[in-house]
Design goal:
- The protein is built from nine helices and ten strands.
- With about 325 residues, it is α/β, with parallel strands linked by helices.
- It folds into two domains: about 140 residues, 2-Layer Sandwich (Nucleotidyltransferase, domain 5), CATH 3.30.420; about 130 residues, ATPase, nucleotide binding domain (Nucleotidyltransferase, domain 5).
- A five-stranded mixed β-sheet has the order 3-2-1-4-5, sandwiched between helices. It has a five-stranded mixed β-sheet with strand order 8-7-6-9-10, with helices on both faces.
- The relative contact order is 0.19.
- The structure holds 5'-O-[(R)-(carboxyoxy)(hydroxy)phosphoryl]adenosine and zinc ion.
Length: about 325
C-alpha cells in the first residue's frame, strides 16, 4: 500500500495506490481559483496554500481509500522538477509521515510520474512505447523501454505546449489555467478561420514561441470589438496549430521502422482535439492527465526506496 504526495505546482494531491497499480483513492485539491486573479501561479501563494492543504488532503486520501495510516508501507513524493517552495512542503510532509512510522520513502521525478500514469490498472501499458509528454513546463518525446525510466528523443526549444495554451488563453482574455478554457471555447469556433504557422525545427524537437507571437499580432490587428466576435475562431485556430505541431512529431516518431506504440501523457493530453487527432495512440486517463498523486505513487513502484531515516537529508530540485 503506497501513499503518494504531489505538490510541485498548484495542485495539492495525495493518493493511495496498491503495489499492483490499483488506485484506491486520488484526491486533488486545485488552487487554480486562488491564482486566477494573477493570470498564473504565484509561487509564494502556492507554497502557503500547500502548507494548509497537505494534511487534510492526505487525511481525505486515506479515508477515501478506507486505509489506515498504519497500513501504508511506502511513502512516495515528488522531489522535482517544479516550484521549489511548493515541492519542499510535500517533501517535508512525506518525510514526517514516513519517519513517524519508520517507513521507507521513494523520491519520484514528476515527469516519470506523468509517464507512470500509464502503468495503473485497469489497463496498464507495457513498454516499449514512444511517449509524448506535454505539460505546462515540458514538451518531450520519450523512448520508454522500461517502467523505471526513459530516454529523451525530442524537446521544445522554447515554450512548452501547455505554456503555449496558457499564454494564448491570456492573449484571448480567457482565464487561468488556459488549456481547458481554449479547449472549451474552440468547440464553438472555426479552426480554419485563421492560418497560424507551425514551426519547422529539425529532428524531433518542438517550438511554440512563434505561434504565440502570431496570435499576439492577430489579436492586435482585430481590435477589441472584433476580438470579442472572433474569439472562438481564434481559440479553435490556435489550438489546431498547437495540436498539429504535436501530432506531426508523434507521427514522425511513429514512422521510424520498428517503431512501437505511441502514448500521450501530461496536462495537454486532456485536450479533446489532440485526443481526436491521434486515434491510435494510448492516452492517459482524463483524470490522470493533469497533476495528481496517483501517478507519483505509481512511479514509486519502479524507484529504489530509501530506508528510514536516510531520506531526512533529501532535498527537492526545481529543474530537471
Ligand atoms: O501536467 P500538468 O497538470 O502540470 C504540469 O506538470 O505542468 O499540466 C498543466 C498544463 C497547463 O498548461 C494547462 O493549460 C494544460 O496542461 N491543459 C490543457 C488542457 N487541460 C490542461 N491544455 C490543453 N487542453 C486541455 N484540455
Ligand atoms: Zn505535471
Amino acid at each position: 500500500m503506497i501513499l503518494g504526495l504531489e505538490t510541485s505546482c498548484d495542485e495539492t494531491a495525495a493518493a493511495v495506490v496498491t503495489g499492483d497499480g490499483r488506485v484506491r483513492s486520488n484526491v486533488v485539491s486545485s488552487q487554480a481559483a486562488l491564482h486566477a486573479d494573477f493570470g498564473g501561479v504565484v509561487p509564494e501563494i502556492a507554497s502557503r496554500r500547500h502548507l494548509e492543504l497537505v494534511a487534510p488532503v492526505v487525511r481525505e486520501a486515506l479515508t477515501d481509500a478506507d486505509v489506515a495510516l498504519e497500513e501504508i508501507e511506502l511513502v512516495a513524493v515528488t522531489q522535482g522538477p517544479g516550484l521549489i517552495g511548493a515541492l519542499l512542503v510535500g517533501l517535508a510532509a512525506a518525510k514526517a509521515l514516513a519517519w513517524g512510522r519508520g517507513l521507507p520513502l521513494a523520491p519520484v521525478d514528476h515527469l516519470h510520474g506523468h509517464v507512470a500514469s500509464l502503468f495503473l490498472q485497469p489497463e496498464p501499458l507495457e513498454p516499449p512505447f514512444v511517449c509524448l509528454l506535454a505539460t505546462g513546463g515540458h514538451t518531450l518525446l520519450l523512448d520508454v523501454r522500461e517502467r523505471s525510466g526513459y530516454r529523451v528523443v525530442g524537446t521544445t526549444l522554447d515554450d512548452a505546449a501547455g505554456e503555449a495554451f496558457d499564454k494564448g488563453a491570456r492573449l484571448l482574455g480567457l482565464g487561468y489555467p488556459g488549456g481547458a478554457q481554449i479547449d472549451r471555447l474552440a468547440r464553438e469556433g472555426d479552426s480554419t478561420a485563421f492560418a497560424f504557422p507551425v514551426a519547422r525545427v529539425p529532428g524531433l524537437d518542438f517550438s511554440f514561441s512563434g505561434l504565440k507571437t502570431a496570435l499576439l499580432y492577430a489579436v492586435k490587428e482585430l481590435g477589441a470589438d472584433e476580438l470579442e466576435r472572433r474569439r472562438a475562431d481564434l481559440a479553435a485556430s490556435y489550438q489546431r496549430a498547437v495540436v498539429r505541431a504535436l501530432v506531426e512529431r508523434v507521427e514522425q516518431a511513429a514512422a521510424v521502422p520498428g517503431a512501437q506504440r505511441m502514448a500521450v501523457v501530461g496536462g495537454v493530453a486532456a485536450n479533446s482535439d489532440l485526443r481526436a487527432s491521434l486515434p491510435d495512440a494510448v492516452f492517459a486517463p482524463l483524470d490522470l492527465c493533469t497533476d495528481n498523486a496517483a501517478m507519483i505513487a505509481s512511479a514509486a513502484r519502479y524507484v529504489s526506496p530509501i530506508a528510514c531515516p536516510a531520506y531526512l537529508t533529501l532535498d527537492a530540485y526545481a529543474a530537471a
